[in-house]
Amino acid sequence: MTEIMHVPVVVVGAGPVGLTVANLLGQDGIDVVVLERNATTVDHPRAIVLDDEGARTLQAFGAADEFLPHTIEGDGARYFDDSGHCFGTVGAGPRTYGFAKRHFMYQPELEAELVKSLERFPSVDLRFGWNVTGINQDVSGVTIACMTPEGERTIRCDWLLACDGGRSPIRQWLGIEFVGSTYEQDWIVLDLKADPDLVNYSRFYCSSTRPAVSVPAPRGGRRYEFMLLDGEVGAEMLTDASIGRLIAPYREFRKEDIIRRAIYTFHARIASRMRQGRALLLGDAAHLTPPFAGQGMNAGLRDAHNVAWKLSMLVRGLADASVLDSYDEERRKPAWAMIQLAVAMGQLVMPKGADQIALRGMLLRMLEAFPGAQDYFLQMKFKPAPRYDSGLFVDIDRQPYEASLVGQMMPQPVVKTAAGKTVRFDEILGPGFALIAQNEKDAAAIARLTHPLWQQLKPALIYLAGADKEISGVGPIIPVVTSDGFSRPLRTHRDQIVLVRPDRYVAGAFFADDEFNFADRFQQLLQNRVMERMSA
Ligand SMILES: Cc1cc2nc3c(=O)[nH]c(=O)nc-3n(C[C@H](O)[C@H](O)[C@H](O)COP(=O)(O)OP(=O)(O)OC[C@H]3O[C@@H](n4cnc5c(N)ncnc54)[C@H](O)[C@@H]3O)c2cc1C
């Protein structure tokens, strides 16, 4: 009989999501085995947009500075009608979370960077060529059967993270439904190099005859996507002749410039639950979105950041298994909202039938007369903000201030340290929890906090002072002054101490004299959630 290896966490799938969650856990020193059935990471381009939240997740384990130089910062999008008239412009948008809203990238380069990043974390064991062939879950763990280059192997783990992609065998073995719909239209995706169109924004051709999208790619490349029409057969449409015809309105066809040509069917689906016992679904295994909002991989990176710190605390004995319930509670609803956004954008780009096309034309003409409304649609102001309305937050629905940040991702201002260095705020926060004071009295208070919770969380203690303040770096507090406007929303809590979770969401805010009550409540969320709910 083969020896059974035991490990706290197994990640199945070395796509961007599996590699990201492994990096986050590895940074905390958690023992993790990553199992990937292929011999290497995927070598063809898929996701082409990394958003600001995704970049922030990479920053959390020190990979952003390495990877972002391989990307190009996006300058939004332009929308064109049948006559070639640009009826809508989306700008680059603010850097609220510390990074450009869009970075155009190649997914294989991101995956290579994530693999390289893992080399820094000896507790992570990445195994290529390990195909998971079955799982068996019981009350104390999960047994995983694998076919490996050396034959059959079995691994036993306490927690299984299924990052095994849209067809997720694990989701199917768990019997979790994948609800939603599949698009009738297939699309051709063409990745080209040496493209003459070097603008760093996306172009949406909202054509009534052939909807198409073109997106910048690093190093002078560009991706073109064309909707297939009824009756068009995928394989025939991938020939040089067909591609030449499709691309003709946009550029010259040169076979040697084609990096990849493929047909894709788009889906809008979500798992009916993201946790089942000791198994959790992340990334495409949990949700699939049409690519119009560039959110597929980014939604998965959010899953990774959301679950990693909870699992890390659980494995280190600092939280109960019930914290993992908050993963589904926090992530499923926003993930579905993001899918709906992509579906809505798809309807704008590819309306069905003459009626919808006419309606879209009318709507767009009307919007031009109302710049405010046009702005709302085209700047995607309906895009769901990074916020949760329930989960591991203290008093999320009973905040004294209307503009409270509790439940929201904290903005990431650029700050200046006592040594005069200018950095993004998260560099000061570090990878774990942080307590932020915004006045001298609270700065003194966070140096004296006594509740045992703080011993467990070991938060970074930060004094975020106004730009006009003199600061000096003495004691346990790290003082910084703001040097851009993105800290303004934090001023809502200027008389409170703000607790930020490792995934950069604001867990709660409290007045210094309410420390014990607040800390008790948060500790209950981590370690006694059921009791808290029953007594609520
Ligand atoms: C044409 C196209 C364009 C896209 N554009 C964007 C975009 O602009 N922005 C964006 O955010 N997203 C985009 N996406 C989506 C993005 O590529 C996916 O969301 C992302 O790859 C999902 O990552 P993942 O790690 O969840 O899954 P995957 O990348 O699919 O990785 C899953 C891994 O699990 C492995 N695996 C599966 N089964 C097993 C098993 N039994 N044992 C071991 N290993 C297993 C697979 O081999 C694979 O390596 C696009 C997708 C497509 C197809």
TrEMBL record:
Domain of life from the UniProt record: Bacteria
Keyword tags: Oxidoreductase
Pfam short name (any one): FAD_binding_3
Stretches assigned to the FAD-binding domain: 7-341
Xref: Gene3D superfamilies: 3.30.70.2450, 3.40.30.120, FAD/NAD(P)-binding domain
GO BP term, pick one: 3-(3-hydroxy)phenylpropionate catabolic process
GO molecular function per UniProt: 3-(3-hydroxyphenyl)propionate hydroxylase activity; FAD binding
Protein name: Bifunctional 3-(3-hydroxy-phenyl)propionate/3-hydroxycinnamic acid hydroxylase
